[in-house]
Design goal:
The two termini are 34 Å apart. This protein is an alpha/beta fold and 226 residues long. Helix 7 links the parallel strand 4 and strand 5. 40% of the residues are buried. The protein is built from nine helices and five strands. Helix 2 crosses helix 8 and helix 8 crosses helix 9. The N terminus is likely disordered.
């Protein structure tokens, strides 16, 4: 089993994230959950967002593997990305995701193999295989855009993920279009709503953390999200 770097919860969150999480939790509690409901409206609204014009690359966000293979959700994202490529939305697919969970290979590598098994051309696949979560996905992708002189990416994920991706991308000044993989959404209604509430909570945490860090001048935290 390979060594997973920064497996500790505090390392995974990064500097300043724990304090911002506690502040966000306190705000949500004192607000009787209303801040979460406010973000939930955004999650539900952005889940319907489709802006699948042309871009420099189709960005397929990774997902934790199951027995070293793409899960149902990740496979649906990859299938949708491949369909967009065939429809000439972009000349290449950029798959993100590093070594996560108990996997012995990166999410990006597993995604590449999944597409190649279906006959997708190897030269049209690019990988970002260092990131462990959405913020790192987008941060590393921004570096790639700058290095390659690309302008925008067409993001593929599941619908309920789009609000958080959009917020993080705006903070990083990353220009994105969006094309949700509908088949990647939770299959049951209960799981769909649980996922929506989770995304609303994470979105609340992000916005609260940014505001809190600006108020106290925590440049270490802010440097991670902009």
């Amino acid at each position: 089993m390979p060594r997973h770097v920064n497996d500790r919860w505090s390392d995974f969150l990064g500097p300043g994230a724990l304090s911002s999480f506690l502040v966000a939790t306190g705000v949500a509690t004192l607000g009787l959950g209303l801040p979460i409901l406010h973000r939930l409206r955004r999650v539900l609204r952005d889940a319907r967002r489709i802006d699948d014009g042309t871009a420099d690359a189709i960005l397929v966000l990774g997902r934790v593997l199951e027995e070293d293979r793409p899960s149902r959700v990740f496979s649906a994202r990859l299938d949708h990305g491949a369909d967009l490529w065939r429809r000439a939305r972009a000349p290449r697919i950029l798959i993100t995701g590093g070594l996560t969970g108990q996997a012995t290979r990166t999410e990006a590598a597993a995604g590449r193999n999944y597409l190649e098994e279906q006959g997708f051309p190897e030269e049209a696949i690019w990988l970002e295989d260092r990131s462990r979560h959405t913020l790192e996905n987008l941060s590393h992708v921004r570096d790639t855009l700058r290095e390659e002189d690309w302008d925008r990416v067409l993001v593929v994920s599941d619908p309920l993920h789009q609000a958080r991706i959009g917020a993080l991308a705006r903070g990083l000044n990353l220009e994105c279009r969006f094309s949700p993989a509908r088949e990647a959404a939770p299959e049951s209604r209960i799981r769909w709503w649980l996922r929506a509430l989770r995304e609303a909570s994470l979105l609340h945490w992000y916005h609260t953390g940014v505001l809190y860090s600006r108020l106290i001048g925590n440049e270490t935290y802010l440097s991670r999200v902009r």
